[in-house]
Amino acid sequence: MKNIIKSTLTILSVLVAFTSCNNGSKSSSKSGALSSNVAEKVYVAPGEHDEFYAFISGGYSGNLTVYGLPSGRMFKEIPVFSQFPTSGYGYSEETKPMLNTSHGFIPWGDSHHPDISQTKGEIDGRFIFINENNTPRIAKIDLKTFETTEIIEVPNSAGNHSSSFVTENTEYVVAGTRFSVPIPQRDMPIKDYKGNFQGALSFISVAPETGNMDIKFQVLMPGFNYDLSHPGRGKSHGWFFFTTYNTEEASTLLEVNASQNDKDFIAAVNWKKIEEYVNNGGGKMMPADYAHNVYDEHTHTATSTMKKEVRVVNPIDVPGAVFFLPTPKSPHGCDVDPSGEYIVGNGKLSANLTVHSFTKMLEAIENKKFDGEAYGIPILKFEDVLAGSVEQPGLGPLHTEFDDQGNAYTTFFISSEVVKWKLGTWEVIDRKPTYYSVGHLTIPGGNSRKPQGKYMFAMNKITKDRYLPTGPELEHSAQLYDISGDKMELLLDFPTHGEPHYAAAMEASLIKERSQKIYNLEENKHPYAAFSDEEVKVVREGNEVHIYMTTIRSHFSPDNIEGIKLGDKVYFHVTNLEQDFDVPHGFAVLGQNTSELLIMPGQTKTSVWEPTKVGVWPFYCTDFCSALHQEMQGYIRVSPANSSTPLKWSLGEDIE
Questions:
Q1: How large is the average pLDDT for residues 568-579?
Q2: Record keywords: Membrane included (predicted)?
Q3: Among 24, 80, 415, 496, which one has the highest count of C-beta atoms within 10 angstroms of its own C-beta?
């Protein structure tokens, strides 16, 4: 008997070994991570391009990072709300105004939720918008140049979190406040929060051709916390939905006091109705100080304008415009499926996942099926707007996105997993663990009418043992899944910079053919640009010295400068004369207390230098540009303040 058992075990071992050897076969089923060659699925050969761009928020870095999918390679960090010495953003004279606010120059931001512009509910790849949470702002990045071209501050707001999601024709980008505050701001006891604080939901219009932003109106809501939001689409176009928590209006120990009510709300806002009201003169203008910063790609210079008022709307003045949908307590994500019928409210403290029906919502409104009101806003009955529930899918639901097959994917923070479930039947189809404590997830086009992706990636808050250790602080982890089959398949871990909160992704074909290669010198309207040696000059205006400088492989003009004195403020206006793709030049001078500059082909940038010591100080190109890059340098002579040394410069010859 023992021999029979041994023989059987031997045969089984051989079969297992044989099967294992064939797990990497391309012809095998795609039902699990071991059944296919995962490395092949994420490999992008040298010279080939990724299928998708992923734009991942940097959180406390204040910036936006660009990755390729499926490779997980980081291609670029786009500076948005934080100074960035790599390019000189926020340091150069041209870009300093981009970080101006009503609180002064703010060199840092907390970026959370990017969203891509849409046309007819489909991603169009023109612009990407992203919010700043700490000092409330919305930024626009032009995806032709991958540069931040506009930032508008949001008044009457604090914790600009339920942002920056766009309507399906990019009519508006929304900016909802997380923290309610006194409006207008005033000195008052914090204990008097309830009934005195308000939450502002800002609707920022976007010009169809240029993308220029302007605050059209703000809806002044009850003093709840407005967490996340999404626009209606398809049948629900014209509505916007916001999750709320702290409907208790507690002002202390929120982890306890803001979890007393059995349900919080999703606020449903009919922005079309409010827009009509405003267009007919409704609302009132309220004094408000906020900055509107715009970068001109022809002058290569930003300007900052301080605005003095904003239009506000009281929702009870527009009957039928705002309703509350009861939702299990402390909801986070507020996600609308591609058809616009289903609104998913992820109650973090609920055992089930709640889905509301837009059709039922309209019926309940028409039939006045209300369950009371909050500050004059009708509360709909929970059972009358409920489409269905996903029963006990996991613990701590946060965020949901959708594919083009009628499936939804939800992250669960506490149970550290992504769960796939079916819209309409509410059945769980699949679940996969994440490592660790997943926050949001993204599917290319997954928050539009036309999801594009065969991939989904989850953004995890903790990394621990996923990568080589780098001391007590680790980069966060994203995990890429193949969702083209019935079962999700984990393909790749890749580290992400800062603390990603959300991401937007799209097919690369929407952008890469339109990506700008150079700035045409003929279109350069910078007032201090120089385009030839004849235009190179050094001009003194009192204690200001303006140097009109050019750079091209592999020299600066001028390359030597004398006559600078202690107490001078020296402006280096550097124009890159290259007209070839991917040939930037850098500029730095010893003792520079801002940052170096990185100047793109055809572009002009300015750095200010205030010398503190007498001497001869070198400047040089910081970006390796040619075989003679090391020779790309010059000197600037600084004399005492009372010196009579004349202002002179050279274009390759000695200064006499």
A1: 98
A2: no
A3: 80
